[in-house]
Amino acid sequence: MPDNTRRARDELFWQTFADRYAVEPGPINLENGYFGRMSRTVVEEYQHNIELINRGNSVHVRQRFEQGENEQVRAQLADLMGVTAESVAFTRNASDGLQSLIRNYNRLQPGDQVLICDLEYDTVKGAMRWLARHRGVEVIEIEHAHPASFDSLLATYRDAFVRYPKLKLMALTHVTHRTGLVMPVRAIAAAGREHGIDVILDGAHALGQIEFNLDDLGIAFAGFNLHKWIGAPLTLGFIYIAPERLADIDPDMGEMHFPVTDIRARTPYSTPNIPALLTLPLVFEEHRAMGGSAAKGARLNYLRNRWVSAVRDLPGIDVMTPDDPQLYCGITSMRFTRHADQQAMAERLLKDYNLFTVVRSGAASGPCIRITPGLTTTAADMDTLSTALNELR
């Protein structure tokens, strides 16, 4: 058994990490997919940086942050991603970055087609529909059958690529926020390239819990969050554009603070959350010290499998995410098949079992309850969930 897989089951080991996080008394939080906690030391560093910038004000920002600190932080982000610093630019979050990439993609002509699926984030869907109104393109919307498999997902895209020959651009979510389904990005992107289709990847939920390499995936455009599984303060995300494809994304609304050859021109220019950015070196250090995405992902997968294996075959329970290791991560959704109102059942989980979850809708397969353990979640918490689901079904 690999070290990360074996260590994922070690409650004492993970308790040492859980102890690094301050947790408010209350419900067991199984909605860690919204945003992640900062460790105590990251909170202290963030507070220190808030006070530092508040004292130094524009003198510090103009003389130090803008003259080198910002580039040092960007270089550390690039190192974390295994890319060049010239290929990344900070944004407030993944949604901001994805909107910038979509609205500034300049290879579309009136009559071209763009592709989204039912599992895309609503902001991404909205941005692609905006293209239809302002660029004269047609939005093609497809649905994925449930239950999904690697082959069915790939076949759905291959069929769309053939059926709609004017497709030029598609959105693709690495980890879908509704069900936690992990898309076979490499295979789908490769199939798209065969038909001349570019992919804009939504990596919001993937970074920090899945190991991946953007070049290996064949991805040239992507947006990410740093506040989910990396452990950074809120208001931090970034975009990635492969350097050889930079010219295919226009500067954002004529942005002129950076030259046209600089990726930072592809995002709106504004005063960023400088204290949060200055906290990132410690965030990256702690992420690596914890074992990075491999260790975090193994732990989250173990917690996910613990409850899924206990309820998968129970009548009245439909687990929305398959058990193919290629297609799941820590986030997984389920629904009660004998109860029409999933929101009412999520409220029962909270009221009767002290378990906080969230309902997600919008998938063709129907509303579901999303369950996302975190780094402070224990195996006992998962067992409480399994008991609750069994009793409520």
What integer is the average pLDDT?
96
Please state the CA-atom Rg, rounded to the nearest Å. 21 Å
- N/C terminus separation: 34 Å
Q: Give helix % range.
A: 40-55%
| Count of separate DSSP helical elements | 12
- Look at the helices and sheets and give the structural class: alpha/beta
Question: How many strand units?
Answer: 13
H and E order = HHEHEHEHEHEHEHEEHHEEHEEEH
Strand content: 5-15%
Enumerate the strands of the largest sheet in spatial order, edge to edge or round the barrel.
Answer: 2-8-7-6-5-3-4
Which regions contain 5 or more consecutive residues with pLDDT less than 50? none
Shape: globular
How would a crystallographer describe the biggest sheet? 7 strands, mixed
Helix/strand layout:
Blueprint (H helix, E strand, L loop, with lengths): L2 H6 L2 H8 L9 E2 L10 H42 L6 E4 L2 H11 L8 E5 L4 H14 L2 E5 L7 H14 L3 E7 L11 H10 L3 E5 L11 H4 L3 E5 L11 E5 L32 H16 L2 H20 L5 E3 L12 E5 L5 H12 L1 E2 L1 E3 L7 E4 L7 H14 L1
Helix pairs in contact: 3-9, 4-5, 6-7, 10-12, 11-12
Question: What are the main properties of this structure?
Answer:
393 residues; alpha/beta; seven-stranded mixed sheet; four-stranded antiparallel sheet; 12 helices; 44% helix; 14% strand
Descriptive report:
With 393 residues, this protein is of the alpha/beta class. Helices cover 44% and strands 14% of the residues. It contains 12 helices and 13 strands. It has helices at 3-8, 11-18, 40-81, 94-104, 122-135, 150-163, 185-194, 214-217, 274-289, 292-311, 342-353, 379-392; strands at residues 28-29, 88-91, 113-117, 138-142, 167-173, 198-202, 221-225, 237-241, 317-319, 332-336, 355-356, 358-360, 368-371. Strands 2-8-7-6-5-3-4 form a 7-stranded mixed sheet, sandwiched between helices. A 4-stranded antiparallel sheet has the order 9-10-13-12, with helices on one face. α3 packs across α9, α4 packs parallel to α5 (122-135) and α11 crosses α12 (379-392). The chain is globular, with a radius of gyration of 21 Å. The mean pLDDT is 96.
